[in-house]
């Protein structure tokens, strides 16, 4: 910080309030930021959310349990399968359903494929936020191939509605494992190339290194999770600390960086893509035989009670809380999303930085407005 | 149970695999086109040009007609070559980004820009209610006119230069500085906060980078002992500056290129129109033909900066076999492609880093180069 920087909070006549969004190229959706600027410096920033509010929690609570899965597709639309998993797990817990081993393995594979797709969006949009348009298109090319694969399996490209209470909707098509392996081979090679293109670029480095530092204490205090938390040096990954489905059998590393800046969060996500590829290969190699679908009651009326499921979505901890009163519909569905929590850190992180840094910090938090607004 | 049928064939390709025969065919076709182009270009001087001599003599002997024809030629050239440059830029971006670029209007999308220009012409002319009308209307022309003027002194060949001004470099420096006036007027006049920030950034950037650029150009002037652009090219008869005086001219050229990128608002210096921060910076509120003029000015400046680099460092129109203007065009397009290559590769700097790089590195470096050139000339003279 230089001597030019004005005192935080002091109001001068040169203040300028601008609205970034809800239609702005880099607010990633319909986020609106009310920013008070003093020249190039951000004095304060107030996120205004709710432009994408659809009342998903209430909608889920007003119909039978198993009909709520499609709504979760619209939560974090960059990683629908991970949201499918969260609600399915909560419903399985409240109803005491068992999931066959093969279905568990298929779920892990699908979630990791979606994690790669989601992190590719982050990679591309973050590069575009920093100003490198080309990396954006490369990331989307890889994502396109991945979406082709997911489409071949699930029939959808974005809102899959595929992981359902009790298992997954159907088994893999023939020859799918080979197709995924071919993709992964090419993808890892391309990822290394993109890494050289962007990560090694000195301009990218000076724009992200030391920018938007989140200390481990602050990250924990805000309730951050996922790559934001691990970028601050806290080694918590629910796939490792509270493993679910087939994750206990999987061999993978949890990337952790201690710097806590934008670059650390970026590097954690890039490394996670490699680890996801590793997990997918293990799933394909060790896929157990059996059914993809557990035994299901015709009418689903769980006993009165509550259930809470915690999953590691690409953005962090996505948890769903269900309350049942013994009828066919839940009394309350509550979604605890990582993007909402991370967005709440933004005003503190951007106070006193420059406009360009604010965009870099917002991008590094990787929020998805579908899940913030719900 | 039986597996469900594949909904869609699982993709198997990993990259852009190509049939070797296809690649070979493409290469052969490219070589054939290149040879044909060179043959056609070298035939140009053999055409019966003397048939038009009476016309040229008539134009040459009437000062007013002469000036008008020259001005018209330059204006038409500037507007028409931009159509090609925009197509090239979009194609280039497409190739870099693993896509095709414009493909539908004309051969490989060659007429896309024409279609876009027609569209822009037919658009409603919008001036924001709260805008400063005079500044808003004048700004696009303020940015375009200096660029147009600079083309008057750019030598395409010993004879193809609209006005062989003895103080050409001084003229260029004096005129291009005014571009920032237009961007500032646009930023202020639109009464939009993004525009204002963009205009302020543009002004600060262009004025700062003007200094090292001028000093880098001055080292060429010191070396050649003249400010006339045609004279500078003629002095490179024995060897291009960048080869003949490599120790000082290569760094000078690099400084010139970096400053050129900054003057042209291209990445890594595209802060004035940083899309992810300022939407489109100073031209956020512009649409239709007013916007087109900014675009026109920007791309024409691109060609001019590249042409200036060729004139100062790469021997201008000099080259074997082909006529002088063709050589000049080839070299200039090569430098323009270099600009595009950089633009589509690197991210954007932050505003303080941009200013710091100029004042803490480029300005001292350019002065050092300038002094080194002066010492070199002194030693060679004594």
Structure characterization notes:
- The complex is a heterodimer of chains A (374) and B (382).
- Chain A is built from 14 helices and eight strands.
- In chain A, the strands form three sheets. In chain A, strands 1-2-3 form a three-stranded antiparallel β-sheet.
- In chain A, helix 4 packs antiparallel against helix 5, helix 4 runs antiparallel to helix 11 and helix 5 packs antiparallel against helix 6.
- With 382 residues, chain B is mainly α.
- Helices cover 68% and strands 0% of the residues of chain B.
- Chain B is globular and about 55 Å long.
Overall domain count of chain A? 1
Largest interface: A-B, 54 and 42 residues
Order of helices and strands of chain B: HHHHHHHHHHHHHHH
Number of strands of chain A: 8
How many independent structural domains of chain B? 1
**How does the major sheet of chain A shape up?**
3 strands, antiparallel
Oligomer: heterodimer
Quick summary of this structure?
The complex is a heterodimer of chains A (374) and B (382). With 374 residues, chain A is of the alpha+beta class. Chain A has 14 helices and eight strands.
Keyword list:
heterodimer, A: 374 residues, alpha+beta, Cytochrome-c3 Hydrogenase, chain B, 3-stranded antiparallel β-sheet, 13% strand, disordered N terminus, B: 382 residues, mainly alpha, 0% strand
Please specify the SSE layout and strand pairing.
The complex is a heterodimer of chains A (374) and B (382).
Chain A: E1 15-20, E2 32-38, E3 41-48, H1 56-61, H2 69-73, H3 80-95, H4 101-130, H5 133-154, E4 163-164, E5 167-168, H6 176-199, H7 202-208, H8 216-222, H9 226-230, H10 238-241, H11 262-285, E6 305-313, E7 316-324, E8 332-336, H12 338-350, H13 355-365, H14 369-373
Antiparallel strand pairs in A: 1-2, 2-3, 4-5, 6-7, 7-8
Chain B: H1 20-43, H2 53-61, H3 63-96, H4 112-122, H5 133-150, H6 168-176, H7 179-189, H8 193-224, H9 229-235, H10 241-244, H11 246-263, H12 275-278, H13 288-313, H14 324-343, H15 351-381
Helix pairs in contact in B: 3-13, 4-13, 5-6, 5-7, 5-13, 7-8, 8-11, 8-15, 11-13, 11-15, 13-14
